[in-house]
Design brief:
The chain is 21% helix and 40% strand. With 140 residues, it is of the alpha+beta class. The chain has a single domain, classed as Nuclear Transport Factor 2, Chain: A (Roll). It has a six-stranded mixed β-sheet. The chain is globular, with a radius of gyration of 14 Å.
Length: 140
């Protein structure tokens, strides 16, 4: 499947996350892609370099977070056609505690040759301080 724009690729990536298709999601990454978490709390990774590191980080995500929907999604095009800014909200439940999962995100995403090359995920670190929220954010 060809994704003509960065926004198309991003929307497809969200569908894969909802389908719990982590191998499919990882396949959207360039070998040397970088994922960063500028607001990561102490003890959480701030930077993942390469598809393998990103795969290791995301591999067990569906075992911890059962994503059900992205009820808020806004994709803004920058002046660089390969870069988008995404505002979104992901909802679902935390698998271990069956507690609600409700996370807001801002992401700056760059795509080259149909693959993610850079993904800066500004997820809400305050959510990890909520009772029962020992596993939130992007993949911990």
């Amino acid at each position: 499947m060809t994704h003509h724009t960065a926004a198309d690729l991003y929307r497809h990536s969200l569908r894969l996350l909802l389908d719990k298709d982590i191998p499919g999601w990882i396949a959207l990454w360039a070998e040397d892609g970088v994922m960063e978490f500028p607001f990561a709390p102490d003890g959480w990774p701030a930077r993942l370099e390469g598809r393998r590191a990103i795969a290791d980080y995301m591999r067990h995500y569906p075992d911890h977070v059962d994503l059900r929907d992205f009820p808020v999604l806004s994709i803004l095009q920058t002046t660089a056609p390969e870069t988008i800014v995404v505002e979104m909200r992901g909802v679902g439940r935390l698998v271990r505690t069956d507690s609600p999962f409700d996370m807001t995100y801002i992401a700056v995403v760059t795509v080259q040759d149909g693959r993610f090359t850079s993904y800066r995920d500004y997820w809400n670190p305050l959510a990890v301080r909520e009772p029962g929220a020992d596993f939130v954010g992007s993949g911990r």
